[in-house]
Amino acid sequence: MTRATPWPALDGIAYGGDYNPEQWPREVWDEDVRLMREAGVNLVSVGIFSWALLERSEGVFDFAWLDELLDLLHANGIHVDLGTPTASPPAWFFHAHPEARVVTRDGRTMGFGSRGMASPSSPAYRTAVARIADALAARYAAHPAVVMWHVHNEYGVPVGEDYSPASVAAFRDWLRERYGSLDGLNAAWGTAFWGQHYGDWEHVGAPADAPSVVNPAQRLDFARFTDHQLRACFRLERDAIRAHATQPVTTNFMANQSWTTDLWAWGREVDIVSDDHYLWAADPDGHVGLAIAADLSRSVGGGAPWILMEHSTSAVNWQPRNVAKRPGEMARNSLTHLARGADAILFFQWRASRSGAEKFHSAMLPHAGTDSRVWREVVDLGTALGRLGEVRGARVQAEAAVLWDFESFWAQDLEWRPSVDVTHQAQVRAYYEQLWRDGITADFALPGHDLSGYRLVVVPAQYLLSKADADNLAAYVRGGGTLVVSFFSGIVDENDAVHPGGYLAPLADVLGLRLEEFLPLREGETITLERADGAALTARAWAEDLIVDGADVVARYVDGPAAGRAALTRHAYGAGTGWYVSTSLDADSLAHVMAAAYADAGVSASVVPAGCEVVVRSSDEHDFTFVVNHRDDAVDLALDGTELLTGAPTDGALTVPAGGIAVVRTAREEAGRA
Amino acid sequence: MTRATPWPALDGIAYGGDYNPEQWPREVWDEDVRLMREAGVNLVSVGIFSWALLERSEGVFDFAWLDELLDLLHANGIHVDLGTPTASPPAWFFHAHPEARVVTRDGRTMGFGSRGMASPSSPAYRTAVARIADALAARYAAHPAVVMWHVHNEYGVPVGEDYSPASVAAFRDWLRERYGSLDGLNAAWGTAFWGQHYGDWEHVGAPADAPSVVNPAQRLDFARFTDHQLRACFRLERDAIRAHATQPVTTNFMANQSWTTDLWAWGREVDIVSDDHYLWAADPDGHVGLAIAADLSRSVGGGAPWILMEHSTSAVNWQPRNVAKRPGEMARNSLTHLARGADAILFFQWRASRSGAEKFHSAMLPHAGTDSRVWREVVDLGTALGRLGEVRGARVQAEAAVLWDFESFWAQDLEWRPSVDVTHQAQVRAYYEQLWRDGITADFALPGHDLSGYRLVVVPAQYLLSKADADNLAAYVRGGGTLVVSFFSGIVDENDAVHPGGYLAPLADVLGLRLEEFLPLREGETITLERADGAALTARAWAEDLIVDGADVVARYVDGPAAGRAALTRHAYGAGTGWYVSTSLDADSLAHVMAAAYADAGVSASVVPAGCEVVVRSSDEHDFTFVVNHRDDAVDLALDGTELLTGAPTDGALTVPAGGIAVVRTAREEAGRA
Amino acid sequence: MTRATPWPALDGIAYGGDYNPEQWPREVWDEDVRLMREAGVNLVSVGIFSWALLERSEGVFDFAWLDELLDLLHANGIHVDLGTPTASPPAWFFHAHPEARVVTRDGRTMGFGSRGMASPSSPAYRTAVARIADALAARYAAHPAVVMWHVHNEYGVPVGEDYSPASVAAFRDWLRERYGSLDGLNAAWGTAFWGQHYGDWEHVGAPADAPSVVNPAQRLDFARFTDHQLRACFRLERDAIRAHATQPVTTNFMANQSWTTDLWAWGREVDIVSDDHYLWAADPDGHVGLAIAADLSRSVGGGAPWILMEHSTSAVNWQPRNVAKRPGEMARNSLTHLARGADAILFFQWRASRSGAEKFHSAMLPHAGTDSRVWREVVDLGTALGRLGEVRGARVQAEAAVLWDFESFWAQDLEWRPSVDVTHQAQVRAYYEQLWRDGITADFALPGHDLSGYRLVVVPAQYLLSKADADNLAAYVRGGGTLVVSFFSGIVDENDAVHPGGYLAPLADVLGLRLEEFLPLREGETITLERADGAALTARAWAEDLIVDGADVVARYVDGPAAGRAALTRHAYGAGTGWYVSTSLDADSLAHVMAAAYADAGVSASVVPAGCEVVVRSSDEHDFTFVVNHRDDAVDLALDGTELLTGAPTDGALTVPAGGIAVVRTAREEAGRA
């Protein structure tokens, strides 16, 4: 289902970044505006960290400098995404409300001096954020420069869980609401284990440091509560703005780089999804992580165009080794986001800061000034985006979906799991990366979603899977879908309790097997599997004792603790097929398995060369095929249409140079799915 | 000396595990009892974590469910080891007595939500544990199901040292008692160093975090105090029970897996020693660690039969990689414990928990149910134990002893020792493992024990050794014993003060040498030694400057910092021999040295194949020879008797299949030692 | 410039160590004094940790034992360096003034029980240290044994930064003094970034734990403040002593092993520089670190003779693996310090302690007693020093200087720098070590010093470099100097703000280039450079995008992120030359580069064999050439003069045996520099 898309009132693809002029003398502002125009910037985010300069003391506002700034921007045709500065309350706030400071799980009270909100459960903080949001919206709702509102910054980072007294009290209220009675809570948390029964609501606390491992259901609920409190803060600000303003309201996520917020729930609260994304420098294939973040941003917004609110022109500053982007890489990153649904390409930040914790973060205008590679590429990117305006609003089509469930992440990441070598993230990445290498564009989805529109659904380590959601997956297969389930899926219910019937029980019918025991491997151990045709596969970290009950055995363990037993299975179920992969396959081995699943699903792997990324966005009339060449040599593709960056017809043969990008417009071949 | 052995009133070898029915609906109880009978279970531990359900609020008891449970078990012939639930006080307790919470060394207060007792020095906690123990004993002393009392659970884990104000005050009292005067304390702690002199008892505190390393004698005393406080809590409960009940009282240790309790002292307090043991999955020879734990459990109980209170049917859940046991491994583990003196084989736990921190811990009845490998092996083990009833009460004979002194452990494990590569544990394991590989059954002993019954005594890194204990070792050698002393022995006295005369001084006469200086090696460095016959040995981590003063040099350092100097020595002293090993030998090299020491001692290494474990238990009339085959192939032994698991005569030749076990009864050949 | 050198009133080279007789019974004192005479000891440090025994409770003094001790030492001709015991306040102090305890950055309050001062900002502590220093000075100023005062011990270790309330209040005062106004502070700290603007002095705090990275300028100021507070404590004691006494006053530094004190500032406060130095055992070339420490000690004292206050006869006890010194090593270490300007060779400590945290620290009189290698070498060293009396007061000549700036260290070591693989220490070591290997003696200097006396100045990672200091370096080159600048120099100003114009901007003219972007490498990555002559160099961790603007390119990057671009440059500027090294060269590659810089500077690498250390001290009449042979074989040198340790003429050819030392006196060849 496609939902209506509000969008900031501006033409073409939005281009720009965070703009923090309060760090600079007034004369620099004029230079900034001149250079923005040179680069084609049409949207800047303003005021993200300006609370202390806008509200000089409690309730005492000073808007003069912001008035001047917005007028200047408007006069130069630059639109404004106006921020609420609530991610960084002023020193006076913490001084007046020390009880609002965040407390860590191990009991340390977090002071002022860096960045980071106060406790999301603090009444003083909530009052303060509503006041500043209201004041800003009242003053600027009608300002012609303002085309969007940007609440807060990256909720969940660096402040997520909070163990302050205010938070504990709010958690208790949230639990009362959730469970109604202590009996409900005792049952859900399984407090009979380790003698944790509660006889009075006042005895229930947050899952802080304790002599041993804290009740995992309690910790899972605290993660849910944390997400809930952060969202409540967002809603408070959003509604204060809506009371005055009509422009769309967003808050910037950190998809695939932060895990304390349930983005599916947040996607329902914002008018437009926006996302911040930074390459992970240690990963030589960081662009795969980028694609995950982009696809997730699109998916939590229901497929609507979204905003890349922040990325970097080159290196960041907060990783162990902050690798700079190489020539062309920023453009490839930017157009990959666009290919995957972003209609706005923005950066942190416009001008590199001389002072503070992020002075080594790259910017559109670097410390080296305009006579620099980065600035020249920024200008070129502005030109390129100017040529892609007609792509705006086109939708990405996906035949496959990968499940991504924050609650399952939260539950699986708790202590005392069977093996530290098994992480949810790594399994999601492994399966997504295989799809990426095979040129298959995927959405992300929840196990409870309507999946009938997808030919293939992949389930990587969906540890927490409710019975109802498992039934939904079974219905999907019965209806003809192809489901690929990895090990460590379907283990616990929504209270982190093992399913009656044992591990994997809710998926037993659809997969045609039972799981008797986990068989984690020792550190560094590798094992071999053999397919029916004799081919060998390799795996690590994990094996299982499977009891086949209807499924076909596709491969067996040759060695390791499950030697001789079924390792990979395929089960014809209803009109569809259920695959099960009981170990962590190496990349080459996983490729074999997925190829077979594609055949069942009727999806075709792309024929483009390895390292070449192809994504299609479709409008009612056109397909826009994005080709991003990550290779060190040129590639040739048979593609007939008009290449938009050059404006030239391809005449059926497109050459994309090493590290280059092409966007080819063709007539629409098939109707959209939704 | 053999002491009288109280034993729970039941027939044959005890079999069963922890039973926590409060986690399950009532209808499950009936299934449990039925399946227990199917498996041959005759003893279950009940109530270990039931405090919150038995005492619903302070002084308000609810015994109805426990009455029903005990009656049900009794009606089905299943005996009960009744626990006191004091390892996990209820939420109401911590709410009412927040000052009773444990404080860590770095000042964090440990809250509710996992498991773990309150401060062992807290008056409120002591009052509460005495009340619940008294109430349980008063009610169930005469219940026919109850055959034993199980106080608390694993004292020292997860709560050992406590730095709460109550603990600090109690420590001060304990020190007054120990030293009588501040002069005594100042002298014992050597407070003249670093200006730590105390002029007032009120200034003395616990050894909490400080700017640099805290006084090691203070830390050693705090370890002693911690052990003392935990034992005081045990005695309080034990005596409350004894006021009503006549059944034996135990508490379950964690021999070789926890180091905060001095098990020699605890062995004197319990009626029966019981132990929990879990394989360390990362150790491919985990069964050697198992043998250490079993031998230590037997030794601290003076050789009397003991209870394996907990082990696992397969994987545990709290290690980094929780490797599952392979077919047959649970039986080998169980019968090895039995071979080494256990007359009860129990598990944690009967039925796998659906919820909580340990849901991935294996159980007798796994999540997969009765149609599972684990359940079938549980039933088979019950059958096997049923055939071994006549072994009950038989004693293990040992010609060798290995010293194991908790005070020395505590002292050696403190900061600022000569090399982080030298740990007490690793040295104990190295020497014990050599004995194990050579098929020599060993007891553990303290250096002050009467050792005259042993042909060989091994002293692995007895860092703390009082003058009196050193004299005891010398007397042992003079009397004809063979003593093997490793480096880092005899360094400090009971106050962690270097012995007058220098390192090793108290053992200088018996070893015929002086130790001038430690020569720790750099990380990863290996060195070579040469024996008189020219053979090369290899070692690592450590060397020494030895001055030979009467001893024969058995090997010299070829390279490294002590090149050319004595490395291994042998000293004829009185009627015996004192060996000294001044470095950390690799396994093959240690084997050579120990072989020579065996020759001196007149003990014979076993002739059974490598990887085959043989232990003998002897009653007045019979020897029961346990053969546990850890190999991947069958072994043949010349052994004439009756194999008890099959009931068949061996006719002089016994074949034990790969991974199998045999127990052969033969007529007693020699009288017992004690 | 040579400044007047006060010196303790004793003959020849001072020899001895810390003497803590309060740890021993009275009868041991007599043996101590006898053995001191045997070893040639003429100076001992007394009372360093004696506060609790001198001031038994607040204001109640007991000097009887110290009176007796000083009289005994004096009667035996042993001079005393009398300590103030303020590095370890008594238990009663902390009990009476709990608010004076130090608080760590993460909020833990550090208690009593180890060693370590109270908060340097605590009024109670300041009162107490002035009282005890005054009392000691009043009593012993006229004692004939006392020839020097030793304030405190190793300021900055183990107590450096303190976050107690007293410290926070003092920091605020210090900031008011530094900045005058909040506007000044806001500008210097760049508080506009991340919304950290301060509107009230009361809101300013210490840079304690916060949700994210704390403002780096705030942290840098807190490091300055910490140094300032520690120095204020020193001055308080020094002035209390000076009110009574005329002997010189020192406090012992830890040059090259502790970084919380700005030794350049401390050098101006003490009458004589003294230093503690311990080999880093994990470093196989620990003697290079020793040379750095010695040269730094000399340099911060303006070239005057200094005191090696502590080193060790053999192993220490606080490193992971405490490697013992091998025969001859202690003498080599001692005479290297002497060669580099020390006129006193002292040890921690005289007699090994039986108790406490440092019982495994070696001493002049070890646990093994006088029949030991260590004792024999101590006696021999006393004899050797007795023969070197005429060296006293001679000065070390240096043609090269290496910059060493504590403020730059502090700033660079903060969080979120471009790469964790780049540390200030490693760069200083790499360049110094190359000079050491080439036999070039170096001073250390600050970038603002008058450098005109040096032919060569090396700038290793001078991250923080003020514009004025950069101008001073440029003036040095214009005047004919040769400057070698490593990457990550000249990045920020004194407020940790990036220089206007970008990285390296203040050095752009002198180096003839611009720096566009840092290019940190991935973990473990290595890259290749090619010189103009085709030779290959290797490097790691870092590369840069350089824009050559006048400089000659000496080598280019062959691969890695800067492939094809300039890597090493040389720029003729004024009468001198500016070199730039944009990456972290491996040792062999750096040797090539430095050889070329030596040629520019007109300094000659030494022709002595590798591993042979040669340093010259010069008096008005003589050169004293120290040859320290670290090799495993003997070396022959052509050197005509008198070898002082043997008293024999060299007759033009000197053979120094493996591990040996020679000191050759020759007539002075050239006049001193200053």
Automatic annotation (TrEMBL), chains A, B, C:
Cross-referenced InterPro entries, in alphabetical order? Beta_galactosidase_C (IPR013739), Beta_galactosidase_Trimer (IPR013738), Class_I_gatase-like (IPR029062), GH (IPR017853), Glyco_hydro_42 (IPR003476), Glyco_hydro_42_N (IPR013529), Glyco_hydro_b (IPR013780)
Instruction: Keyword check for Hydrolase, yes or no.
Output: yes
Question: Residues in domain Beta-galactosidase trimerisation?
Answer: 398-603
Start and end residues of each Glycoside hydrolase family 42 N-terminal domain: 18-386
Q: What is its EC number?
A: 3.2.1.23
Name the catalysed reactions. Hydrolysis of terminal non-reducing beta-D-galactose residues in beta-D-galactosides
Instruction: Tell me the keywords, alphabetical order.
Output: Glycosidase, Hydrolase
CDD domains on file: A4_beta-galactosidase_middle_domain
What are the boundaries of the signal sequence?
none
KW Hydrolase (keyword) present: yes
Q: Which Pfam families match?
A: Glyco_hydro_42, Glyco_hydro_42C, Glyco_hydro_42M
Q: Which domain of life is it from?
A: Bacteria
What is the main EC category here? hydrolase
* Domain Beta-galactosidase C-terminal stretches: 611-665
Q: Per its UniProt record, what Gene3D superfamilies does this chain match?
A: 3.40.50.880, Glycosidases (3.20.20.80), Golgi alpha-mannosidase II (2.60.40.1180)
Query: PANTHER family from the xrefs?
Result: BETA-GALACTOSIDASE GANA
In which family does this protein belong, per the annotation?
A: Belongs to the glycosyl hydrolase 42 family.
Q: What is this protein called?
A: Beta-galactosidase
The species this protein was found in: Microbacterium galbum
